[in-house]
């Protein structure tokens, strides 16, 4: 992370988990979008963080609150891309 970005985010540091301040690398998968090994690994990490799968919903183990997160993008094109991915995934669920 650049010094400029760190400076911009400093006032939000108490609200950010420590991992969000690190660089991110996409996981390596088989490219199918249904890579069971990658899904298993993700669920293991989420379980270690206190979340369990309840049907099709990830819930915090003690409070039963649903897992929520935000994806930050820098351009409108990225925003439209993410919105399209979300809409398609929701359509598959119903």
Number of domains: 1
Order of SSEs, N→C? Answer: HHEEH
If you compute it from the alpha carbons, what radius of gyration comes out, rounded to the nearest whole angstrom?
16 Å
User: Helix fraction?
Assistant: 40-55%
Number of extended strands: 2
User: Strands of the biggest beta sheet: in what spatial order?
Assistant: 1-2
Specify the biggest β-sheet.
2 strands, antiparallel
Total number of helical segments? 3
Give the N-to-C terminal Cα separation. 39 Å
**Secondary-structure class:** mainly alpha
- What would you call the shape? globular
Q: On the 0-100 scale, what is the average pLDDT?
A: 81
Stretches with pLDDT under 50, minimum 5 residues:
none
- What percent strand? 5-15%
């Amino acid at each position: 992370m650049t010094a400029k970005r760190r400076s911009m985010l400093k006032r939000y540091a108490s609200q950010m988990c420590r991992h969000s301040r690190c660089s991110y690398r996409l996981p390596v998968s088989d490219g199918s979008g249904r890579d069971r090994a990658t899904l298993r690994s993700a669920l293991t990490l989420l379980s270690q963080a206190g979340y369990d799968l309840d049907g099709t919903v990830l819930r915090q183990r003690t409070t039963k609150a649903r897992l929520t997160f935000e994806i930050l993008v820098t351009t409108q094109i990225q925003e439209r891309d993410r919105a399209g991915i979300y809409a398609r995934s929701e359509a598959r669920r119903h």
